[in-house]
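2024-03-11 09:14:02 INFO receiving multi-entity request
2024-03-11 09:14:02 INFO entity count = two
2024-03-11 09:14:03 INFO echoing inputs for audit
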Amino acid sequence: MRTHARSYPAFFLAVIASLVVCTAALAEADPLPSWNDTNTKNAIVTFVEKATTEGSADFVPPAERIATFDNDGTLWPSHPIYTQLAFALDRVKALAPQHPEWKTTQPFKAVLDNDMKALAAAGEKGLLELIMASHAGMSTAEFEKIVTDWFRTARHPRFKRPYTELAYQPMVELLEYLRANGFKTYIVSGGGIEFMRPMTEKVYGVSPEQVIGSSIETKFEMKDGKPVLMRLPKIHFIDDKAGKPVGINEFIGRRPVAAFGNSAGDREMLEWTGAGSGARLMMLVFHDDAEREYAYGPANGLPDTKFGTFPEALMKEAKAKGWVVISMKDDWKRIFAFDQ
Amino acid sequence: MRTHARSYPAFFLAVIASLVVCTAALAEADPLPSWNDTNTKNAIVTFVEKATTEGSADFVPPAERIATFDNDGTLWPSHPIYTQLAFALDRVKALAPQHPEWKTTQPFKAVLDNDMKALAAAGEKGLLELIMASHAGMSTAEFEKIVTDWFRTARHPRFKRPYTELAYQPMVELLEYLRANGFKTYIVSGGGIEFMRPMTEKVYGVSPEQVIGSSIETKFEMKDGKPVLMRLPKIHFIDDKAGKPVGINEFIGRRPVAAFGNSAGDREMLEWTGAGSGARLMMLVFHDDAEREYAYGPANGLPDTKFGTFPEALMKEAKAKGWVVISMKDDWKRIFAFDQ
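2024-03-11 09:21:47 INFO inference complete, emitting structure
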């Protein structure tokens, strides 16, 4: 009888233990809870299972599991303007007292007057001037502090939250899911490499050494007996369009097996990724959700935009090559972590 | 009695098990068996213990454990000439039949005639011409194959072995010791990034994405409907001297806590590393072993060299800043894995 009496608690403990294990297993069963159960989600899971199943024809050895992600429009919004442009405009305003000549000189006058029409008229040359005035002339350490402080205080004009809270929750889950399956996740963005690095670890779990981006030149100098890297007003590398495979090759030295973008700027990265052999996954985020985020094309008849254009030709190429187009509206249960 | 009889084998098993454990522990006790027990070895072990002891004032969080290594003269020989220069000379000879004009044009004529005096007279401009003729004009995939094939067949003129067998065994152990303690080991070399990548994993255990080096420009192109990266005869980045901190900042985005070099080309990398706070280790390999490898300075009165110069001023700076100078002769039990 004592033996039986003892075995009851043991039995219950076993039941409880197995319940805990089963619950954990069920929780594990959906690594992508913010994705609706569509073909898109299925394409991701199928790819990961093939790539990680030893003995499968599509098995990818862990060292070769490289996944590259564009940032603006792919991992967080690029509307109403690129986050880095919002930073540049804020910086010009903050620096204006030291530059009285800006009151009468374009494109600075346009920024100080909030004259978006004049700013657009300044074109790419004007934009470059704003970037150089706001991004160069200080050390890398000083710039890191400026960027970090800005991310702490700046708010997105529509969502009224810090930009660092605007990561797309389904993409954050995708990044984590890939990493949990042995992938190294890289950001490969047209944005400034040193603008992104202060926030990527916190926002996406991507460490600085896995961030590739555009850069200006820096110069090693001794200042008061201490070495510094000074940021110069000269473009070093543009990590966009045909520059993305170049940047990937230079920084990683391996071809990705998965690549994620959202615009014409990501076309060559997806082509480069897709041209490798074995399991591949190429995806494009399509912004068709004006209600929860934004809707733009011009593909599928949506309005055109300067900030992440998705032309009809890209949609055609995606279909022809088997790239998966993510519909934000249909494939994503929620956009942001703070969404219901 | 039965109980006793049973306990004997158990006792012996326990003894054997503890012997196995102790032997393993003893084996683990010296992670640097090719290093003599000198202050130099002690400096390495002390640094690693401080950096990895949680709660210690010098503790370095795993994510920040970045160690950077120069290649030529630090991880393998840079004499009698840089390995990559030997490759360039071999390539010029192999390509000569397609370039009949080289028979009468310098610096190519000098290479084909094995006229080292005329080659030296061609200077840096001549060297650059040789590099471009041998390193550009093909796709990155083609270049990788050319380099891989060359490493398979080329032999070092003195040691009569493949260059890939000439890694300094003490440095290979140091790389492994650091990785075993959570460090990410990077190569930061003046050598070509795409010349090194085909061999660094095999020779040093360093994966392609942890190799930083000099580069020429590459261009994304469609060839027969397939994307390729073509190598252009134009310098993109020189990862030497003041370029090393620039390259480290661009590729890694973190300041190293340990850096290893052997020549004037590594000075700024060590200064940059040393200027950070917390535990630091800066080391320079000094080639003072003509018998087992090479001896050159001009520091300490040794002969000067064009391939990895170590000037008196560097020796002075090392002493003033507490950088550890490794004497190959005194600190290394063996140089190569094949040494006794």
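2024-03-11 09:21:48 INFO post-check: Chain A touches chain B through 33 residues (CB under 8 Å).
2024-03-11 09:21:48 INFO post-check: Residues 14 and 216 of chain A are 61 Å apart (CA to CA).
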